[in-house]
User: Fold these one by one.
Assistant:
Number 1:
Amino acid sequence: MNELKRMTVFCGSSENVDNHYFEAVEQLGKELAEKEIEVVYGGGNVGLMGALARSVLKAGGKVTGIIPRKIYDNVTHIELSNLVIVDTMHERKAKMYELGDAFIALPGGIGTLEELTEIFTWYQLEYHNKPIGLLNTKGYYDRFYLMLEHMVEEGFLHKQYMEPLLTEENPEKLVAMISRHSVPMMNKWKQDDISDRI
Ligand code: AMP
């Protein structure tokens, strides 16, 4: 892949999760700061979002938050390197996708899953060829991965579309895997490819 300057990270906002998740996120934040990879995330102060931002800043790294006005007005804030306030959730996601050279989904809830599946969908539709890492703390994403394999087995997902996905429990290893991973651009609209898929 091209040089990895910015990593967009999707993460859960819940505080009510096992300490293992916080520890993994802190390791990830430190690793990204040490590798001088700027972090782009949803700008939140709570749960794994807040833990990520704090750990990157503590290790001397850079963090850009992208947050919709509606959320910004209702929460307290961490002093980030850069904060972009946008009007809508759609604008926020578009900006996060645009800025990241690659993506990591940390464990999270429905919001994280939505961000992850959207960026995965956009790969299928040939909008980008950026790697997507799943930080698989405590095997959190095992069931999601099984569901994807089931989609492949049942013919709803072509296995080529799995190309950008990397799954790893260790944060340092995940960052190293992403920086080495070259994802081919999908060529969905080419006739041969379509016939191969039906
Ligand atoms: P979830 O994975 O369901 O916890 O949702 C995570 C997503 O919810 C984030 O990426 C944000 O879009 C949004 N979100 C929830 N709470 C906050 C918050 N306090 N600050 C910023 N974004 C938040």
Number 2:
Amino acid sequence: MSDVSVPLENALRDAQRIAVMTGAGISAESGVPTFRGEGGLWKGHRPEELATPEAFARDPEQVWEFYDWRRTLIAECSPNAGHEALARLERRTEDFLLITQNVDGLHQLAGSERMVELHGNLWRIRPLGSRPAEGRIDRRAPLPRPLPLRGDDGTLLRPDVVWFGEMLPERALLAAGEAARSAEIFLVIGTSGIVEPAASLARVAAQAGARVVEINPEPTPLSSVAHDVFRESAAAVLPRLVPPDSTKES
Ligand code: BJW
């Protein structure tokens, strides 16, 4: 394991293999609501009630309205100092993977490139029944009407996100697992750590010998595997750990 007595800022500068997993908390300071906790309601529904294949089968128009509301809200949001610090960390680290559960696309806007999206992307759309369109980037644009969206041939379209009970995109999950097993340092940022299989990646990393770092104002089920814990917001901690002018040599 990377020596946990070394100050984290130095360990991050010297490590050759770093993996980072983010959740909704990293985008909270950009104005994107998290799933759980305060402010996690849409028209009286918890997001998880609508992010399911069953909800879509029952009422595709309602589910599309929910995603349209989120697209409209997130279109106004910009990356924050936390997203930017992770893009800097990537640029100065040889072997790096950012694993995000977020569907908002803010990491990409901040300049992150070596990344995988475990739960898809809010800005992509695909035909119902098709495979996830991993990697393709769509425009951050308003949805056409009427809802629910249909293709030219009348096929029902759906957001390219991963709902409860659905498999995660295969390539993304594979790459995330490999990165968790080989990382010297594994950062877990802004996730409640209850949604599987994402949450298990931190445990896999800890078991494989990584120094696990949690950044979250609240304790989570993953706190017990973390060697370093920061009970602060991501946008406050990350710029301290990865200062704007930091380079390998300095
Ligand atoms: C800050 C902050 C600041 C605030 N700075 N921090 C094993 C055991 C039990 C169940 C399962 C299991 N394996 C699979 C399951 C079933 C299920 C699951 O995990 N259920 C659990 C809830 C019990 N998983 C699945 O179904 C997954 N599929 C799967 O495993 O397929 C195989 C399979 C199928 C069927 C049976 C068995 C196996 C799919 C999961 C898909 C999750 N999808 C969603 C919606 C995406 C689309 C959309 O956006 O609409 O993904 S749900 C939602 O939760 C979203 C998120 O990515 C995900 C995680 O949430 P996250 O990011 O952690 O956010 P929050 O809100 O929970 O937490 C925010 C945190 O930030 C908090 O801790 C705050 O304190 C913190 N914070 N401000 C830093 N400023």
